[in-house]
Amino acid sequence: MEGTTPAVDPGLAAALRGLADIASPPPVSMLPQTWAWAALAALLFLAIALAFWRWYRYRQLNRYRREALGELREIEGRIGAAQTRGHALAALPALLKRTALAVWPREAVANLSGSGWIGFLNAHSGGPVFPAAAAHFFEEAEYRGPAALASVPEAEAKAHLAAARHWIEAHHVRS
């Protein structure tokens, strides 16, 4: 009896033949099933596009400022050496004038000099940026040559450079 298999009931055999594999459900779609999800996705896309556009516009509008700060870093490197200090200090007023001309109309900026120029710089920076010594320097530096400016002490030159940097970074453009 050990090697014989029991007889299969004919009803059981018929039932086993009628069985089919387990039916698996169709895969779940990853697409939104309602219009609200599609609307939310569209709004999210628009918000991201608007944020990118505003960032890009901000970068374009402040490009002149980044370029001026880059040139200011070059000038700062030349202020440390006594033999190049005069040329570096002579470049500061021109840099401020070019920076202002990049934003404001030529008629409003180009003819300014002396105390009118310092008044313009202070008016567009939200407050007095230039202390008395720096204001005096920027009033007269355009008319002094690099040889005369070379006698400015390094500490004073760095103070003028800091005032110029502060104005370039902080001036307000009113449109």
Which structural class matches the secondary elements? mainly alpha
Radius of gyration: 38 Å
User: Shape, please?
Assistant: rod-shaped
**Number of separate helices:** 9
* Termini gap: 105 Å
Secondary-structure element series: HHHHHHHHH
| pLDDT averaged over residues | 88
Unreliable stretches = none
Helix % is: 55-70%
**In percent, how much strand structure appears in the residues?**
under 5%
Largest sheet: none
Count of distinct strands: 0
Quick structural overview:
The chain is mainly α and 175 residues long. Helices cover 67% and strands 0% of the residues. The protein has helices at 10-18, 35-61, 63-79, 82-101, 106-109, 114-123, 132-140, 146-149, 154-170.
Describe the structure.
- The protein has 175 residues and is mostly helical.
- It has a domain of 108 residues.
- The protein is 67% helix and 0% strand.
- Helix 3 runs antiparallel to helix 4, helix 3 runs antiparallel to helix 9 and helix 4 packs parallel to helix 9.
- It is rod-shaped, with a radius of gyration of 38 Å.
- The model has no long low-confidence stretch (mean pLDDT 88).
